[in-house]
Amino acid sequence: MSRPIKATVNTTALTHNLQQVRTLAPTSKVWSVVKANAYGHGLARCYAALAATDGYALLNYEEAILLREKGVTQPILLLEGFFKPQDLELIDAYQLTTAVHSDWQLQALADFPAKHAISVYLKINNGMNRLGFPPEAIPRVWQQLNALPSVGTVTLMSHFARADEGVDYIQEPLRRLEQSTATLSGPRCYANSAATLWHPQTHHQWVRPGVVLYGASPTGRTADIAAFDLQPVMSLTSEIIAIQNVAAQEGVGYGHRYRTTTPQRIGIVACGYADGYPRHAPTGTPVSVGGKLCRTVGTVSMDMLMVDLTDCPDTQIGTTVELWGTQLPVDTVAEAAGTVGYELLTAVTQRVPFTLIV
Ligand SMILES: *Cc1c(COP(=O)(O)O)cnc(C)c1O
User: 16, 230, 238, 323: least CB-packed within 10 angstroms?
Assistant: First the structure.
């Protein structure tokens, strides 16, 4: 027997969500973004459910090699590019596609005798000011890359800072992209999940969705993806391991940060911040107890959290609790905790056992 917490990954939902992306971007190829261990779902567990993808995008060499060793033959894109000139050995050996965002990388490619031409993604900074060459440098870098014998296909790549905030926020970045690439003929890859859902004008030859594949919202708000048929992939569940009948005017949990005003039935759940549940989730964060929506009370402990059972008298020791998943979208919990689903999904810790539904 084991502690009752577990994360369940529904691979059918993953496959379904990829299919939904295809419907939204029917003429584009799809990079399935599986960075951060497939957004916390487990890359080894998930890649096969995405087998219909045109490529996998990530940023760790370890994860890229894992996919190649599993026999993945689709292209694999390194979203952050390579970190040192000598990394090109590995990129060549495993035939990875790499982003190129800085001048030193051009020199490294020029100096490297590749066995197979390396496909590169030329990263354009459209105003996010994170990675990428400035728009005015793009024609020059394009020429340089295309002149290198070690370089194969060059794709134009960019990333939007505010694609989740409405079309007004992509006009200026798009204008910069169009201006800098007007004379260049290569394929384009600009759209993350938000742009894939809401801005078809950004789709071009390749889209690059991540979070929507896992059934969560690019905005961090559940309501924003209600119009799309996306299914949650991860459910984090545990059980009620104790029940306290607490008198009025008592404190509950560390710091007594919650106080009862009337007698109250409190359930203790085997899930805490050492499992990846956010410690900053305030009293009132939603939790599903035996299928009924309840609220947390007090400070989340390392290994436990407390819920108000006033409205679910049927709850007993052993009743199933869903922290997030099919009954309670991860973004709904994230909103209450002042974060986004992305962070909660990627924060589930090593000690939580995963099971697979296929
Ligand atoms: C993470 C990432 C994506 C995917 O972002 P989502 O919002 O999860 O769709 C796409 N492109 C780049 C460069 C990324 O780093």
Answer: 16
